Every structure is written in C-alpha cells, then in structure tokens.
Amino acid sequence: xxxxxxxxxxxxxxxxxxxxxxxxxxxxxxxxxxxxxxxxxxxxxxxxxxxxxxxxxxxxxxxxxxxxxxxxxxxxxxxxxxxxxxxxxxxxxxxxxxxxxxxxxxxxxxxxxxxxxxxxxxxxxxxxxxxxxxxxxxxxxxxxxxxxxxxxxxxxxxxxxxxxxxxxxxxxxxxxxxxxxxxxxxxxxxxxxxxxxxxxxxxxxxxxxxxxxxxxxxxxxxxxxxxxxxxxxxxxxxxxxxxxxxxxxxxxxxxxxxxxxxxxxxxxxxxxxxxxxxxxxxxxxxxxxxxxxxxxxxxxxxxxxxxxxxxxxxxxxxxxxxxxxxxxxxxxxxxxxxxxxxxxxxxxxxxxxxxxxxxxxxxxxxxxxxxxxxxxxxxxxxxxxxxxxxxxxxxxx
Length: 397
Ligand code: GLA
Hints:
Blueprint: H1 2-16, E1 29-32, H2 34-37, H3 43-55, H4 58-61, E2 65-67, E3 73-76, E4 82-84, H5 93-102, E5 106-112, H6 128-138, E6 142-146, H7 155-169, E7 174-177, E8 195-197, H8 217-224, E9 236-238, H9 250-262, E10 267-269, H10 278-284, H11 287-293, E11 302-307, E12 310-316, E13 322-328, E14 334-338, E15 344-347, E16 352-355, E17 361-365, E18 370-374, E19 379-383, E20 387-395
Parallel strand pairs: 1-2, 1-10, 2-5, 5-6, 6-7, 7-8, 8-9
Antiparallel strand pairs: 3-4, 11-12, 12-13, 13-20, 14-19, 15-16, 17-18, 17-20
Helix pairs in contact: 3-5, 6-7, 9-10, 9-11
C-alpha cells in the first residue's frame, strides 16, 4: 500500500505538473545578449544594458527582461551545482539579479536540454532539478532553454522535465523553448512553455538564406506565416530575437520590427542598448507599433494578399480595431492604391471580419504617428524598398 502511494505521488507529479500559468499573457519583451555580444558576456556588460534599458526609454516602452544567453557558465562543483564563470561574473549571479531587480526589471538566463550548450558550456541534462533550484535561488525570472548536444533525447520529454523542475523549484519563471522548430513544438508545447522558437537562428539580413541554416527576416516571416493557429496568450510562436540596430538599413529595421509586431512575436532586442542611434531607439520604442504586438487578444496576424513583392498583412486587435501592414519585399519603391471598400477581410480562425462596405474606419499611420483619413476613400501611398507602411484602423461608430 505504502509503495502504491509513493508510485501514485510521483505519477501525479508528472501528470498534473504544469507550467506557471499567466506569466506571458502578452508576448514577452526584453533584451538578450546573444545577437550582438555572442560569448562576450560579463556582469559589467549586463549591468550596463540594464542601466541603458531604463535610460533609453526602453523600460517605459514595455521592455522588461534582461537575459544572459550562452557562455555565462563556469563549472559544476563536486555536488553537481552550476557556478558562473568567476572571471566574467566575479560578484555572482544572485548579485546581478538583485541589481536588475532594483531597476524594476526582470532577469533571465540560458541553459540547454543537452549535455552541453551550443558553445560547449555545461548543459542541464541530468541536472534539471538542481539547476532549476539554483535559478530560483538566484532570482531568475526567465529561462531560455536550448537544444544543442541532445543526442537522441526526445524533445517533448526533455522540455517537460525542465518545466516540471521549474515548477518543483517553486519560483515563477517564464520558460522559453528554443529547439528551432525542429520537433514542431507548436503541436505540443502549449502547456510546456510560454514561447517556442519556430525557426533557425536569425541574422541581421533582410533577405538571406545562409548555408549554415540561419535565416534573414523575410525567410523567417515566410516560415512563421502558417503557424498562427498555434499562438496566443501565454503560448507564443517565437520567430527569434530582434536584429534592429545590428547593421540593417533603417527601412529594413523598421520593416523587421513592424512584422514581428504583426506576428505577435516576443520582442527581445538584441542590439547594444548603450549605443543606439536615434533611429534605432525610435523604432524599438514606438509605443503605437508595440501596442499592436502587445494587444490583449494576442492574435497573430496573417498575410492577406501578395502581388509583385507587395504583401498586405492584417492583424485583428481588441475593440474591433485592426492593424494593417503593407510590406515591400523588393528593392524598389512601390505605389499602393488600396480601395478599402472592395475588400472584406475575414479571419476565419479567430472569427473576425472587417467589412469596409458596411463599416468605416479611422486610419492612423503608426510610423508617421498621424491620423490620415478614413476607409471611405481609397488609400494611396508609396512604400519604400524593404520597408512598410503600418496602419491602425478603428471603427467609427
Ligand atoms: C543557439 C540559439 C541561439 C543562441 C545560441 C547560443 O544557436 O538558437 O539563439 O542562444 O545557440 O549558443
């Protein structure tokens, strides 16, 4: 009988364990070290980025998490507990987390489901419960969990193990699944993590498909488009972190940021926050564009039409509003002439309709930050090369 109870106890822990609910009702916003700094992380850098997140207005715009990616790790001690690299993080991770919390921000860290991370640092395999406990003690709020060096592990099981470990450690931690879409996490990860990477690594290139598998903005966008039915509050498709400010043109950065907002993607900046041009800052902190991403309905937008390199995307928003994005994929400017009243926009997945014959909408240009008329007149505009025109429509009642 006693044995049976013990078995039942462990079985129920497995069956009834779940992720921490409600930690990501809108897509998480923050900053991560990888895209700009790679392995070159240190406590000085991370503190500097936390300071800059506040000073630059990013915090005010809604960014919250400061996440150290790969390479913070030092060694496992004789009991198997993980320690940071003592040269890079001499004050320890707890002190760093405290500092970040003292700025009103949240703190994230990175590990890997395999034996080693992608940069050959110690992975969490076999140490999941121990690592979760350590993160909880340090004050971690967000864990990005990678998929390198996992051999024949089953992805769903490996991520469930870490989810259960986090749950057992007791501290609410956003769980960011990063297996690059290899095992279709959208089909099984809704109750495991709060977000899951859908695609290989992003690079700061608008239209690129590299031999090593990494992808440009348009290539990721195309892969993400079919996955909208899987995404929503507390369980987001993640097309990878932002490359705004990392070398593309201002037009391309604006288009990248706009499309990530149309996708209701997590907005994790990946640039040097302490050294931003005015244009980069303006893109990353445009509150009206961010409000499209952070809309409480949490519906991922969809491609409504495409013709000669011009795409029109729609995203249903709360209060019967819509976001519309005209995306120019080509290297030449494109004239748009959009006769609203000839279109009826139907989102059959989320049951939303915009019928411009029966309803007139006010039009707000979200980059120009101006009201520019109504949908009872045709819309004419030029979309520069590799750029967007992004609008919010609100019904006139
Ligand atoms: C993988 C991930 C990246 C980054 C690196 C770190 O490639 O997809 O986002 O975390 O590992 O090594």
